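Entry 14. Ran structure prediction on the chain below.
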Amino acid sequence: MSINDLKTGTDGHPRARIQQLMDHLQQLMESDAHVDRPEYVSDLIDDVAKRWTALSQDDKEYVSTARYALVNKMPWNVK
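Output, structure tokens:
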């Protein structure tokens, strides 16, 4: 899956697009891709952050925590 695929979404609905982006971010973080492919994960986080006002509080916290782990090159041990 590419960033461009995620940007367009499947049905054009903004919430569906956000959910796709968040699901992909979760997959990447759980596989520690933010350590192996930091540029890709950073681009995805930036794309999600563009929709900040539409994110739920939980999603905002997840994105903030993901960015912190990315910047600090920390393993993702969220259970």
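The two ends are 25 Å apart (CA to CA). Will compare against last week's run tomorrow.
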